[in-house]
Amino acid sequence: MIALAQAWRAGLTRHTQRAILAREAALRLVESGPPEHHAFTVRDLIRMAQSARSAAGPRG
Protein backbone atom coordinates (compact mmCIF):
# COMPACT_ATOMS: atom_id res chain seq x y z
CA MET A 1 0.00 0.00 0.00
CA ILE A 2 2.81 2.42 0.84
CA ALA A 3 4.49 1.82 -2.52
CA LEU A 4 1.18 2.43 -4.30
CA ALA A 5 0.67 5.72 -2.45
CA GLN A 6 4.23 6.82 -3.27
CA ALA A 7 3.76 5.96 -6.95
CA TRP A 8 0.48 7.89 -7.03
CA ARG A 9 2.12 10.93 -5.43
CA ALA A 10 5.01 10.77 -7.89
CA GLY A 11 2.57 10.71 -10.81
CA LEU A 12 0.63 13.62 -9.35
CA THR A 13 3.86 15.57 -8.88
CA ARG A 14 4.89 15.03 -12.52
CA HIS A 15 1.44 16.10 -13.70
CA THR A 16 1.59 19.22 -11.53
CA GLN A 17 5.07 20.10 -12.79
CA ARG A 18 3.93 19.78 -16.41
CA ALA A 19 0.93 22.00 -15.74
CA ILE A 20 3.15 24.63 -14.10
CA LEU A 21 5.59 24.57 -17.04
CA ALA A 22 2.75 24.95 -19.54
CA ARG A 23 1.28 27.84 -17.54
CA GLU A 24 4.67 29.56 -17.29
CA ALA A 25 5.24 29.17 -21.03
CA ALA A 26 1.83 30.71 -21.76
CA LEU A 27 2.56 33.60 -19.38
CA ARG A 28 5.90 34.26 -21.06
CA LEU A 29 4.15 34.50 -24.40
CA VAL A 30 1.55 36.88 -23.00
CA GLU A 31 4.18 39.05 -21.28
CA SER A 32 6.25 39.34 -24.44
CA GLY A 33 3.08 40.20 -26.34
CA PRO A 34 1.90 38.63 -29.55
CA PRO A 35 2.96 40.09 -32.88
CA GLU A 36 0.63 42.86 -33.98
CA HIS A 37 -0.53 40.98 -37.04
CA HIS A 38 -1.55 37.82 -35.17
CA ALA A 39 -3.93 37.21 -32.27
CA PHE A 40 -3.62 33.84 -30.56
CA THR A 41 -6.70 31.66 -30.66
CA VAL A 42 -7.68 29.16 -27.99
CA ARG A 43 -6.49 26.41 -30.33
CA ASP A 44 -3.06 28.10 -30.60
CA LEU A 45 -2.77 28.34 -26.82
CA ILE A 46 -3.78 24.69 -26.37
CA ARG A 47 -1.22 23.63 -28.97
CA MET A 48 1.51 25.65 -27.22
CA ALA A 49 0.58 24.19 -23.83
CA GLN A 50 0.68 20.65 -25.23
CA SER A 51 4.04 21.35 -26.80
CA ALA A 52 5.43 22.70 -23.52
CA ARG A 53 4.03 19.71 -21.67
CA SER A 54 5.61 17.22 -24.07
CA ALA A 55 8.93 19.05 -23.85
CA ALA A 56 8.81 18.78 -20.05
CA GLY A 57 9.47 15.06 -20.16
CA PRO A 58 8.16 11.63 -21.04
CA ARG A 59 4.70 10.68 -19.99
CA GLY A 60 4.58 8.21 -17.17
How are the SSEs ordered, and which strands pair?
Elements: H1 2-32, H2 42-56
Helix pairs in contact: 1-2
Short description:
With 60 residues, the chain is mainly alpha-helical.
Features:
60 residues, elongated, mainly alpha, 77% helix, 0% strand
Notes on the structure:
The chain has 2 helices and no strands. The chain has helices at 2-32, 42-56. The two termini are 20 Å apart. It is elongated, with a radius of gyration of 15 Å. The model has no long low-confidence stretch (mean pLDDT 78). By secondary structure, the chain is mostly helical. Helix content is 77%, strand content 0%. The longest helix has 31 residues, at 2-32.
The geometry reads as elongated
For the CA atoms, what is the radius of gyration?
15 Å
Query: Count of DSSP E strands?
Result: 0
Strand content: under 5%
Mean pLDDT: 78
List the uncertain runs: none
